[in-house]
Design goal:
HTH-type_TetR-like_transc_reg, single chain, transcription, 2 domains, Tetracycline Repressor, domain 2, elongated, transcription regulation, Homeodomain-like_sf, transcription cis-regulatory region binding
C-alpha cells in the first residue's frame, strides 16, 4: 500500500492530467483522497511542491542517463529509457499543461541536462553541423514518446531507435 505522500502524488498526477495543474486545487486533491487540505499541506506546503515532486524522478533519471553515458548511443538509449519510463507524466505535462516546465528550477535543470546530452551525442570536437545534428537526434527521442505515450512500450522503443538509427545511417559511428 502506498504511503500518504505517494498517494498524494499519484492522485495529484491524475487530477493534473484530467483538468490541468491550474484548475486543480489542493482541496480537490485532499477530497479525492479522503484527507483534509491541512493533511496534504503537511506533506507538501504548496501545490507547486507537488508539481516539483512529480518532476523529480524524471529529472533524476535523466541525470543518471547522462551521468553514465560514455558515447552517442549510450546517451541516446539512456535518454530514451528515461523518457519512456515517464512518458505519461510527459504526455500530460507537455501536451496538456506546461506548468511543470514553467517552473524555473525544472526548466533550468532540464536545459542543463539536455545541453550535456547534446555534448555527448555530438562527440568530441564537433563542428556546428554535428552539434545541430545531435540536437535533432535528441529531439527525436522525446516527441514520439510524448505523442504516442499509450503505445506499447516495446513497439515505441523500437520505432524511436529505428528512426534515430536511420537519421544517423550515413554516419560511420
Amino acid at each position: 500500500m502506498l504511503n500518504t505522500r505517494a498517494r498524494i502524488l499519484d492522485t495529484a498526477q491524475r487530477l493534473f492530467a484530467e483538468q490541468g495543474y491550474q484548475h486543480t486545487s489542493v482541496r480537490q486533491i485532499a477530497e479525492r483522497l479522503g484527507l483534509t487540505k491541512t493533511a496534504v499541506l503537511y506533506h507538501f506546503p504548496a501545490k507547486v511542491d507537488i508539481l516539483l515532486a512529480l518532476a523529480e524522478p524524471f529529472l533524476a533519471d535523466l541525470e543518471a542517463a547522462v551521468g553514465v553515458a560514455e558515447d552517442r548511443w549510450g546517451a541516446i538509449e539512456g535518454l530514451l529509457e528515461a523518457h519512456l519510463k515517464h512518458r505519461h507524466l510527459l504526455h500530460n505535462n507537455v501536451l496538456q499543461d506546461l506548468a511543470m516546465m514553467a517552473q524555473e528550477s525544472v526548466a533550468r535543470r532540464y536545459a542543463r541536462l539536455m545541453l550535456e546530452a547534446n555534448r555527448l551525442v555530438a562527440g568530441p570536437g564537433p563542428d556546428f553541423a554535428t552539434k545541430v545534428q545531435a540536437a535533432q537526434a535528441i529531439a527525436m527521442l522525446s516527441d514520439p514518446v510524448i505523442i504516442y505515450a499509450d503505445a506499447p512500450i516495446d513497439d515505441l522503443r523500437a520505432a524511436v531507435l529505428a528512426g534515430v538509427k536511420a537519421f544517423y545511417s550515413d554516419d560511420s559511428e
